[in-house]
Amino acid sequence: MTKSRQRTQHEDGNAMTITPDQMRFTFSDTIAGYVTGFNRDTGVFTLRTSGGQEYPVRLKGHTYAWFVRNLGEPYHDATGQMREMLVEGTYLYVYGVFYPEG
Fold first, then answer.
1. Amino acid 16: pLDDT
2. Which residues, listed in sequence order, are joined to residue 30 by a DSSP beta bridge?
3. Residue 4 parent element (H or E)
4. CA angle, 64 as apex, 69 and 30 as ends, to 5°?
5. How far is it, in rounded angstroms, from Cα 47 to Cα 55?
6. Which H or E element spans position 66?
7. Alpha-carbon gap, residue 56 to 2, rounded angstroms
8. Residue 20 has what pLDDT?
9. Rg of the Cα trace of the chain?
10. Cα(31)–Cα(95) distance, rounded to whole angstroms?
11. What is the chain's pLDDT, residue by residue, as a tens digit (102 residues)?
């Protein structure tokens, strides 16, 4: 996460603003954006949101993917093609767990 990004956390009715480098807890989230690069050796790709923030995303052994579909349409797995599809400019959604560093 970039340091300029801010999240608002409400606690006891008061709003406070924190930056990602101040977050020292694990949480899950979904982000959407465009692939800006992929390192096949490390399994890490970079995702840029429409707001301009860039996030490193690490593929693990249990990572899976599927193609978006309309209601009522069958599931189409994309896990086997996932690495080949991570090319610059691809728009995708990522759901995962954020682990703070440090």
1. 61
2. 95
3. none
4. 70
5. 5
6. none
7. 10
8. 60
9. 16
10. 7
11. 444 445 454 555 666 666 666 667 888 889 999 999 999 999 999 999 998 988 899 999 899 999 989 999 999 999 999 999 999 999 999 998 887 775
CA dihedral 56, 58, 59, 62 (to 10 degrees): -130
Under DSSP, the state recorded for 73 is: S
The alpha carbon torsion through 77, 83, 84, 88 (nearest 10 deg) reads 120
pLDDT at 30: 93
- Residue spans of beta strands (DSSP E) within the chain: 7-11, 14-18, 27-39, 44-48, 54-58, 91-98
- Amino acid in position 49: T
Strand duo 7-11 + 44-48: pairing: unpaired
User: For residue 70, what are the CA distances in angstroms to 74, 76, 85, 90, 95?
Assistant: 9, 11, 20, 20, 19
Instruction: Output the pLDDT for position 42.
Output: 95
